[in-house]
TrEMBL record:
<protein>
    <submittedName>
        <fullName>TniB family NTP-binding protein</fullName>
    </submittedName>
</protein>
<dbReference type="InterPro" id="IPR008868">
    <property type="entry name" value="TniB"/>
</dbReference>
<feature type="region of interest" description="Disordered">
    <location>
        <begin position="1"/>
        <end position="53"/>
    </location>
</feature>
<dbReference type="InterPro" id="IPR027417">
    <property type="entry name" value="P-loop_NTPase"/>
</dbReference>
<dbReference type="Pfam" id="PF05621">
    <property type="entry name" value="TniB"/>
</dbReference>
<feature type="compositionally biased region" description="Basic and acidic residues">
    <location>
        <begin position="8"/>
        <end position="18"/>
    </location>
</feature>
Length: 329
């Protein structure tokens, strides 16, 4: 069923065979061919959650992956960028913008879960290097945070920014890093200083990021508020290096919202559906959550918890009302 914000059942990505060289891990496969257990399917995870405690069921709701058009576009673009990493001099990048709760952080967390950092006795693999930018970043701290994201540990805190950048470039190579993800990227916007050069509005940290990108040939994914997209549109250096754009919005109370709720109704760890996408329930849930994806998951997780505590097979109207009261929504 396809709408302007399409939803599908979660599926694992197809395997590929791209590799750096004979000594490197295969990008889309575990580094341990002899691994004994296969990852659980979405249905298996749901069935296991349904056997758990009310809190375990509620926790499961927060991890449900709904493949909206934006989610699928983000992952298709990111995996294409990962394939291009180090293979071409300018692999490109992506800027994901949206207000809080629209799915930016969820995309990052899902990506890290799909390609986790793994350590062996000989080396650390970090295909996805993900960090969150602080609200008052400095170029040196930005580089240091990237280093820490690869697993780099140092007892020496006195290295200069230039030394740290060289260490980082080597760490990215040693860890087979394929993409760098920076959340809260709107903090890239300088809060002070001259903004007269329209090609370098990203400030000193933008210059550091461009240096790392140019030297490593590793794509960047930036995510942040809509002001980050405005910055990229105005800064020619950022725009031409990382030209991909995905804009996330809160849901309107329309057919796409009902489709989303129908899919969630199927995915919730309850024995029976509750007609989540039907009128007037879908309108009520939109009134409570304002169409915000994060708020929606928090609300539904509390509905599931309350219903599970009473051993109910489905979420009732009373459970919806009690969850609204409990969360003060």
């Amino acid at each position: 069923m396809k709408t302007s914000r399409n939803t599908q059942d979660p599926r694992r990505p197809a395997d590929h065979s791209a590799s750096d060289n004979a000594s490197s891990r295969i990008l889309f496969e575990p580094p341990f061919p002899g691994a004994e257990s296969m990852p659980e399917s979405p249905d298996e995870r749901r069935n296991r959650a349904m056997k758990g405690s009310p809190l375990e069921r509620a926790s499961f709701v927060g991890d449900i992956v709904i493949h909206t058009d934006e989610f699928m576009q983000a992952f298709a673009t990111i995996e294409a960028l990962m394939e291009r990493a180090r293979g071409v001099r300018q692999p490109g990048g992506l800027c994901i913008t949206g207000e809080g709760g629209t799915g930016k952080t969820f995309i990052r967390e899902s990506l890290v879960k799909r390609y986790p950092r793994e350590e062996t006795a000989w080396r650390t693999y970090c295909p996805v290097l993900a960090i969150e930018m602080s609200d008052t970043p400095t170029p040196r701290q930005f580089v240091l945070n990237l280093l820490l994201g690869t697993g780099y540990c140092s007892t020496h805190g006195g290295q200069s920014e230039d030394v740290l950048k060289n260490i980082l470039l080597k760490a990215l190579l040693d860890c087979s890093t394929r993409i760098i993800v920076v959340d809260e990227g709107h903090h890239l916007i300088p809060s002070s200083g001259s903004r007269k050069n329209t090609e370098r509005l990203g400030g000193a940290i933008g210059e550091v990021a461009k240096f790392i990108y140019d030297k490593s040939a590793i794509p960047f994914v930036w995510s942040g508020r809509h002001s980050l997209g405005d910055l990229f549109d105005k800064d020619k250096q950022l725009d031409t290096r990382w030209s991909g754009r995905i804009r996330l919005e809160e849901y309107k109370c329309d057919t796409a919202w009902q489709v989303l709720l129908d899919v969630l109704d199927e995915a919730l760890p309850m024995e029976e559906k509750c007609g989540l996408g039907e009128l007037p329930r879908s309108q009520f849930v939109h009134l409570i959550t304002k169409g915000n994806f994060r708020r929606l998951k928090v609300y539904l997780s509390e509905c599931v918890r309350i219903a599970s505590c009473e051993a109910s097979r489905a979420i009732s109207k009373e459970h919806f009302d009690r969850a609204q009261y409990a969360l003060a929504l």
